[in-house]
Amino acid sequence: MNRQAGRTQRKNGIRSPEPVSVKERGRGNARRLLLISGVKLDISLQAENGHLTGHHSNEVNLLDSKASQGELGWISNPSHGWEEISGVDEHYTPIRTFQVCNVMEYSQNNWLRTNWIPRNSAQKIYVELKFTLRDCNSIPLVLGTCKETFNLYYMETEEDQGDQFWEHQFSKIDTIAADESFTQTDLGDRILKLNTEVREVGPVTKKGFYLAFQDVGACVALVSVRVYFKKCPFTVRNLATFPDTVPTDTQALVEVRGSCVNNSREEEPPRMYCSTEGEWLVPIGKCLCNIGYEVRGVVCQACRPGFYKSSPGNLRCSKCPPHSYTHLEGSVHCACEKNYFRSELDPASMACTRPPSAPGNVISVINETSVILDWSWPADLGGRKDVTFNVVCKRCWAGQRQCEPCRGAVRFLPRPTGLSNTTVTVTDLLAHTNYTFEIEAQNGVSALAPAHRQFAAVSITTNQAAPSPVAVIRKDRTSRNSISLSWLEPERPNGIILDYEVKFYEKQEQETSYTILRAKGTNVTLNGLKPDTVYLLQIRARTAAGYGASSRKFEFETSPDSFSISSENSQVVLIAISSAVAIILLAVVVYLLLGRFCGYSKSKHPDEKRLPFGNGHLRLPGIRTYVDPHTYEDPSQAVHEFAKELEASCIAIDKVVGAGEFGEVCSGRLKQPSKKETSVAIKTLKAGYTETQRRDFLSEASIMGQFDHPNIIRLEGVVTRSKPVMIVTEYMENGSLDSFLRRHDAQFTVIQLVGMLRGIASGMKYLSDMGYVHRDLAARNILVNSNLVCKVSDFGLSRVLEDDPEAAYTTRGGKIPIRWTAPEAIAYRKFTSASDAWSYGIVLWEVMSYGERPYWEMSNQDVIKAVDEGYRLPPPMDCPAALYQLMLDCWQKDRNNRPKFDQIVSILDKLIRNPSSLKIIANAAPSPENLLLDRTSADIATFRSMGDWLESMQTLPCKDIFNGASYSSCNTLAKTSAEIYLSEVRPAATCPEWEPSMGITTL
């Protein structure tokens, strides 16, 4: 197959003086040895050289000689060359053929030219020839003159040139030879052997072209000539239509953009590639049927009535769920039947539901001024599971139908609305009062129903009740032998107070001997007491229903001598003493501040040397100190002091994201009144907990509630008055830092990582300033939000040391590995901010290694031994030398040499402000036999040169002094003793920014 680049041209410069159309010539010629007319061409039975004879759908014919019913009118030159005759094909269909057989004469040059063929849009054309050829050996006396080949030519033109015919203007395509030729025997059997040859031509660029056939002495018959080009035909793939596309003449694929069929949309732009062979390849992207339409073959068809489709996609339409319908085609949802509803949160696939019926079998149990209400579930839940109950309290008047909502301090346990259980306790009611309680059942569609409320009502009358306890007792006067007291009437007397019982005794006797007095009013004087003695006292009121509960114990003390002080005089004395103490304290503070202002300071940073003054007033910084909740006698008091109590109805749980020893961890939403709804994380306390477990669970909230810092996890509140008990914190979208780094391995810049580390250090500085020791600082306990802000978490677990060498210390939440724990904490149980600094160094290593496990698969015992022998973790890959130096400083064996968290924050701030200092990479690599580095060599030898180390430590002014003292390499300096260094180098070096904790800590 020859392309245009390899074609040869015949340029003989001779034009036939008489170009003759074949149709003008006669039929008879005695010299013709090839006769096709009347001979059957058995195409169907012969192999035709292995070529298929049928036409493909991707082929577009430009010329097909078999399709012509009349004479073709091609040009023959010379006139006695090619001859057009009639024949029949294998189906006995008349066809026009051309033949030539001038084998007896030398130097044959017979040309046959087609009519002008328009190119259309083709760039590459194909010529298919079907012909028969006589075997020269079967013809006698033609040796030297008979040929068994002929030549194929073409010529491009912009228009039809009519009968003009110049041989030299044609370009040769190929020489055509027969794979099979026929003999005299085949001619006698009237079956000829047909050959099929296809040649490519291209690229063609002009509007049309001619084909020409040159005979040089063969006995050949052209049975048919077909000229065509290939295209990628119109097709539909993935619900996208692709038009007819003509490929280019090059080997490149043509990208074609598809169009979505009607009633569909793109999910990803549909594309396909058209090859040079007219075949579609590599379908990319697809279309999705719109809502209300489903895939039917290659089209999107509207959903039938009674069916719907609420989301785009190529799924089938769904049948309407129960109690819903649609009468239209192409429905996106089904309407609910009468008296049935669907809430906004219900998916379209959910059946329509209705409000529940009223609860049944309401039972009330009255106990003085409280009542327990119990009821059964509604007979009809409305087809939903989210049924809750609301209890409405109304106070009514006897003999009247008039009622009003309950006011005052009526309490519902657990709450009046959103009840999931069928019981509630109502307390603090008034005695001898009529009440009506309405219990209403609701579900997710109750608010949509126009009908009246469905509730069951019960009316009760409270009993006579004893008074509530006396809340406040005041000491009016004290003497050596007496105390005068007064008090307020109980908040709920529940009738007429008849009298009060006053019980008192010496504190040291613990009620083994006590005295009881009765008072008609709200005051009493206790006489006959011992001087300088502490007494405990309780008071209770009595009505016709009996005595109420005793007040809490109040403590009073008699005077040690004979003088007495009234309450008014005592207040004056206290005010005078307080004023004097305040003046003395203020004088001391001013004196100390003036001393600092005059130049005396132990501050390590310039910005700490002076406190700010303004407008002649001293501004004292606010100081907060951490309070251990375990010091409270009642841990619940610590929870309520430091944590906000939330209503359970404000919290919606979306899904469970994890589980722990105490219960599940969920994600959800918090919607508080007049506040925007926020995403939160919710820790729940599992059912069946013990009081110890509840106390340990809530201790974390007591701790978190004391912290307020952008890098400390924020406590939103707690739920303790209903079950389950919950701790609600802000939601951190990216989860724990170690998992987050592993998911995004090598995706952050060094500056981004240093920014994360700076946030962690800032949070730890805040905790250290408050006096809180974390004890479990690790990447797994750092949470990351959507803005890559890192926040310290996990505060609530008390730690109990044990002897297991694989645990180091445990918590009530499980064992904690020792890989993050400082050596002194493991050996001597010394947990301080310095041990937290060691842990921070491990976190720094975790961050720079993108969440790798510290010490890899080494056992805990091996880690303890290696650290004790001075070995340290090697620098992570591509870790800046300055950051690895900070790690080594955090891993100082002597905890007093480790940097404080304010120093760590300062060092990281300097690195962020000077990014070029992060370009020096620590190059220390452990040997294959030992994964860890010796601490004495790791400190300095991690740097390629002394200059690199000095630059990373911000000590470039000292470079010349170090070189002058013969410390030109890091290895030399690392092997120098501390005494020689301090005596020879340090006195000569004026390096104010350099401290031992910043670098050569082993010296």
UniProtKB/TrEMBL annotation:
Do the record's keywords include Glycoprotein?
yes
Q: Which reaction does it catalyse?
A: L-tyrosyl-[protein] + ATP = O-phospho-L-tyrosyl-[protein] + ADP + H(+)
Q: Which residues form the Fibronectin type-III domain?
A: 355-465, 466-561
Q: Which PROSITE patterns match?
A: EPH_LBD, FN3, PROTEIN_KINASE_ATP, PROTEIN_KINASE_DOM, PROTEIN_KINASE_TYR, RECEPTOR_TYR_KIN_V_1, RECEPTOR_TYR_KIN_V_2
Statement: the UniProt record of this protein carries the keyword ATP-binding = yes
GO cellular-component term (any)? plasma membrane
> Which region ranges are annotated with the description Disordered?
1-25
Annotated signal sequence is none
Any stretches that span the bilayer, and where are they? Answer: 572-594
| Cysteines engaged in disulfide bonds, as pairs | 101-219, 136-146
EC number(s) in its UniProt entry?
A: 2.7.10.1
Subcellular location, record wording: Cell membrane
Q: Where does ATP bind?
A: 657-665, 683
Q: Which domain of life is it from?
A: Eukaryota
Please list the residue ranges annotated as the Eph LBD domain: 59-237
| Chief localisation class | membrane
GO BP: axon guidance
One GO term in the molecular function aspect is:
transmembrane-ephrin receptor activity
Active-site residues annotated for this sequence: 776 (proton acceptor)
- Provide the Protein kinase domain boundaries: 651-912
Q: Which UniProt keywords apply?
A: ATP-binding, Cell membrane, Disulfide bond, Glycoprotein, Kinase, Membrane, Nucleotide-binding, Phosphoprotein, Receptor, Repeat, Signal, Transferase, Transmembrane, Transmembrane helix, Tyrosine-protein kinase
PANTHER family xref list: EPH RECEPTOR A5, EPHRIN TYPE-A RECEPTOR 3
Name the record gives this protein: receptor protein-tyrosine kinase
Q: From which source organism is this entry?
A: Albula goreensis
